[in-house]
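Hi,

I'm pasting everything inline rather than attaching a file, because the server keeps stripping attachments. The sequence lines come first, and each chain or strand is labelled.
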Amino acid sequence: MAGQRIQRQTGVALWRQIADRIRTSINHGDFDENGMVPPETTLALQFGVNRHTIRSALAALAQEGIVRAVQGRGTLIERKERLSFPISRRTRFSQGIGDQVRETRSMLLASGEDVASSELAKQLRIEPGAPLIRLETLGHADHRPVSRATSWFPADRFGNIAEIYRVTGSITKAFKELGVADYVRVVTEITATHADEGDLTDLQLSPGAIVLVAQALNADLDNVPVQYSISRFAADRVRFTVEN
Amino acid sequence: MAGQRIQRQTGVALWRQIADRIRTSINHGDFDENGMVPPETTLALQFGVNRHTIRSALAALAQEGIVRAVQGRGTLIERKERLSFPISRRTRFSQGIGDQVRETRSMLLASGEDVASSELAKQLRIEPGAPLIRLETLGHADHRPVSRATSWFPADRFGNIAEIYRVTGSITKAFKELGVADYVRVVTEITATHADEGDLTDLQLSPGAIVLVAQALNADLDNVPVQYSISRFAADRVRFTVEN
DNA sequence: TTTAAATGTCTATTGATATAGACAACCATA
DNA sequence: TATGGTTGTCTATATCAATAGACATTTAAA
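And the predicted assembly:
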C-alpha cells in the first residue's frame, strides 16, 4: 500500500473516500497480521491528510461496526466480510452463501399485482398487460442485510405465491408447492450504480455507496420463464462469481 | 419520479448525489420524450434543494459530456450509452461488443515482468515466484475508453506476448501465434468499487464514479490456465450479461 | 515505575458546500 | 415585438469539511 492519493474538491469528502478505501483494504485482508488498522498518524501520512480527517473516516467505520477504537492500544478490526455469490444455472440466494455464513434469512417487504410492461412481457414471454405477482424481498446474512429484490411471476400460474412465500420464506419452496419442481437461471445481467433512497434504508448504506444490480430470468425445466427479478446488493458486502 | 429525498451531512456533497441520480435517470431513459433534463427550478423543487445546488450537479454532468446547457432553452441530453458485455466461456473484449459499436480498439499501456504472488500462482496453477508477463491494456469503443485491464501470462509459454500484442492489438491473435489455437473463460469474479486515480485518468471518469471489476481466468483447450486478468470498466458505460 | 505509543478532546482558522435573493441574457412563440 | 420561461452571473451569509497545534488519557512494554 504505497502513497495513496486522494481526490479533493470532487463533492466527496476526504474522510468518506478514506473510509471507503480502508473498508476495502480490510475486506481485502491487508491488515490481517495483527487484526488492527495502522495508527492514525501513520494513515494520515499515507493518505497525505490531517490526523483529524483520518479520525472522521475511522469514526464512520466504527459507526458501521467494522472497527473499534481502543484508547492507548489502537483501532481493532471488528468484522470483515464480502460474501461470494455464485451465478450459475442453479443460482439461489440462501444455498449459494449457505456455507459462508451461520444464518441466512429472507423477508417479504411488500407484495402486489402488476400488469406486464413491454419489457417484462418480453422477458417472461407473455402478453403485455398480462397480470403479474410482484414480490419485494430483503435478504439477510448473519443479521446483516445484503440484498434487496423485486421479483415478478406470471399471475396465472403463481397467483398466491406471496402467501406461500410469506410462510416459507423461500422462493424455491414456494415454487415446489405450486408445481415447479425445479428451475434454472437463464440469463443474468449485472450493472453497478449508486445507492438510491430505498437502498440506503433497506440495506443500511450511506450515500455514495455502491450497489451491484443483478437482473435475472429463471425458467422451469421446460424452459418456460417463471420469474424475472431485479436484485440490488451492497457492493462492499458481496462478490459475484461466474463459473463457466 | 416522485419527491426524491437526498441525504445530508454524509460526506457526499448534495450536488454530487444529485448528479449521480440525474445520470442514472438519463441512462434509464426517463427524459427521452423531449431529450432534455427538466428545468433547474423544477429539479430544485423535486430534490428539495436550492437552484444553485442543481446548477453544480448539472455543471458536473456537462463536464462529463452527458448534458449541454443552452441559455434560454434548457439543458439538452448529449449522450447516453451502456454497452453490454457477454460473459461466457467465449468472452473476448472486441467480439462481444462488436455489433453494438462502430469501432473497437485495444492499446497497450505498459508491459513488464512480475513474479507470481501466491494468489496469482494459485489461479494460474504454477509455482509461486515463477516468472510472469504483465500486460496493461486499455479498451476503447467508438473512441471512448471503457475498460482498463491488467493481465498476467506464464512467461515460459508466452515470453514475448507483449511484442505480438503490441503489433496485433489482440490477445486472441497473440495466443494463436504462440500456439494457443483457442481458449475459454474458466471463471469470472465481479465486484464494484469507487474509481481510483488510475481509473479517473485512463477511463476519463470523475471522482466518486463507479467501476465494475472483473477478475477472470482463461485456460486453453487442455484446461491449462493461460491468462489471469483484472479488468476495470466504467460502470455507467457497460453492463455484464451472463448466459447460462 | 517510567516511557513510548496510541487514541480522545479542545480551540482556532481556512476553504468548500449550500442557501437566499436579485437581475441579466437568451430563446421560442404568441 | 412583446412576453414567459429558461440559463447565466453576481453578492451575501451560514454551515460543513479540513488543517493546525496543544495537551489529556489510556495501554503495553521497557
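Chain B has a mean pLDDT of 83.

If the labels don't parse on your end, tell me and I'll reformat.
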